[in-house]
Amino acid sequence: MRHTTPRPRCAPRPHRALRPGALLLALALLGSLVACGSSEEEGAPVLKWYARDEAGGVFGAAISDCNEAAEGRYTIELVPLPANADEQREQLVRRLAAEDGDIDLMNMDVPWTAEFANAGWIEEWPEDRAAAVTEGRIETTVETATYDDALYGAPLNTNAQLLWYRDDLVDEVPATWDQMVDQAEALAEEGEPHIIWTQGQRYEGLVVWFVSLLASAGGSVLDESGEEVSLETEPTREALEVMRRYSRSVAAPSALATAQEDQGRQGWETGEAAFMTNYGFVWPSANQLAPDIAADMGWAQYPGVVEGEPSRVVIGGFNIGIGAYGAHQDLAFDAASCLVGEDNQIRNATDAGLLPVSEALYSDPALTEAEAAVEGEPIERDGEPVLAFPYAETIKAALDTAVLRPQTPYYNDVSLAIISILHPTADIDPDDDVERLRDAISRALDGEGLL
Amino acid sequence: MALRGSSLSARARSERRLGWMLCAPAVTVMLVVTAYPVAYALWLSLQRYDLRFPDQREFVGLDNYAAVLGNELWWQDLLNTMVITVASVSIELVLGFALAFVMHRAIFGRALVRSSLLVPYGIITVVAAFAWRFAFDPTTGFVNGLLNTEQSWFTESWSSYVVIILAEVWKTTPFMSLLLLAGFTLVPDDAVRAARVDGASAWERLRYVIIPLMKPAIMVALLFRTLDAFRIFDSVFVMTRGAQNTENVSILGYKTLIGRLNLGLGSAVSVLIFACVLIIAFLFVKGFGTNLAQQRGES
């Protein structure tokens, strides 16, 4: 992004009559830099938006539209963050803890809301402004941006996992993990592709998996207050049992302990797998890179844990937060409201695969009829254009009943505790690990002790 | 000092003042750059201080140290660190010695041999770590193809250690061999020739003449590498992020300080790592010091 306003040039001032002593020179130079840095900027204020620069340049396009709509009141500028969510958080929290006024807007992964809001790093949305960015939005997406009954972010995009399966191998879509593993074992005996891909690496994806299973079994990590550990014994044991059984079965890929979403996609595209739990990005990718596999690709709700009980998946996505130390918060609220507008949501969805947060869009032809494209090139299979979101209805249903990750300012610590106890998943001991999980998460909630 | 106070001439005094003034910038820089951060970390480690909860900041004395030292995770990570350190440094010593010997004896292409050997050491550690990770990845890597195996290297503890240690050895053996090469130049040719005339075999010449004379160089090389290996971070972080029980003390410090923003607890971890480094250095210097004295006595 280029600056549209001219900035004052920082040129060192000429120094006359330098006396001996390098220290003096250094001090003088420092002084001139400070003087230059503090000079006023002219023209429209520049709002810095810290966000990962999504593929397809969708954020750049949204910025130009919003800048145009602002008619010179402000100019948004994208400051790219790293691709990995952990690294994004690290950079943001370091800056925010130091009260960096440079952050006007920021993309926050949904589990960060409580931490950022509690520390006072982000601004609460005033009621009148909140209405504009919550109306018509899927309820669970608004919940992810809410802390202590106040809104702290504008939902920008959302996400949830689906079950992807090979409809040439699978006759009946499994409703639970146990059924899925049974089917995979049967396929293995017949010598058919039988792998189930999911995320077993020691990172956030493992928490998503665990929390989804736990919620599907009827349990939760924290109690209602969000301050105490819950982890009801029976549901937790069932969730752990499922993780262990699968991890030790022939259905688990040998690289499960290092598998993230993309390893799953790659494995799926080789044709060795019968099932995969993953996000929608696998759809255009398979259509482009492995059209033969994509031709037999079906999707369904994430498998549950208890027969007859529907599954609940963890909700993902990003909300836009307003930095508490920025100089132009009023304008930043305006800018955020524009960036999460429905036109931008549609573009984010069709060009970068970021699912919209507005309910109505899931039945809007702009989304349901959109054709899949990679880097602007439409994807075709057998001469027919491939749709981008044929699974829109299924994912909408998953989002409506989705579960949130624990909403606590200590979320990062809780996540670390879960990861360190449950990895590698093949070594889970359901009886002992319920207690160990409780201990580790209590320690995390105290903010004391190593994790 | 024989001359003091008033007995100093005006000229001597002003020279002394000039001396101090000339030193002052260096001393200031040293204080600002090293002493201040270390002292600040010590001060932080005595507090309950989490950047996410600035209001809860309070002085807690040695509580943080008790929390760290009383946690099995610290001891586990310390053990992991030591496994990596001891294994990689001992392999490097043997390999580095052999390479130094070759470089010392190389008749032609000396400069080329020496500079090509240094290539791994010149590569940025993070970049090298990524290269190793990709090489050993079952889908993108070539190692499985080369060895005709289907191992996923980072899914088990032992194989993760193998790769991390190999990467460390590959990366820093050149440094070791360079230090040892300097040691070889300490060995006078006459001494080796004299031993040969006395009928010592090649092994005896190495065992009783060359190695004792090289001892100071070996000690320095070992000290430097041990301290480096103890603080290893990049390779482990890139390859396993501490999974498969390869988490070491540096990663623990990083997790606590940067990930959790727990400055008190994280500083306690860092100070303890610093203390470990001091202990290692002290032990080495002690051994090394007496050896130097022996050297001087003998020669």
TrEMBL record, chain A:
Protein name, per record: ABC transporter substrate-binding protein
Keywords: Signal, Transport
Pfam family, one: SBP_bac_1
SUPFAM superfamilies membership: Periplasmic binding protein-like II (SSF53850)
Cleaved signal peptide residues: 1-37
Highest taxon in the source lineage: Bacteria
Family to which this protein belongs: Belongs to the bacterial solute-binding protein 1 family.
Automatic annotation (TrEMBL), chain B:
Transmembrane regions listed in the UniProt entry: 20-43, 82-103, 115-135, 161-187, 208-227, 263-285
Superkingdom assignment: Bacteria
GO aspect biological process, one term: transmembrane transport
GO cellular component: plasma membrane
Location (main, coarse): membrane
Keyword Cytoplasm included in the entry's annotation: no
Keyword Membrane in record: yes
Family: Belongs to the binding-protein-dependent transport system permease family.
Name of protein: Sugar ABC transporter permease
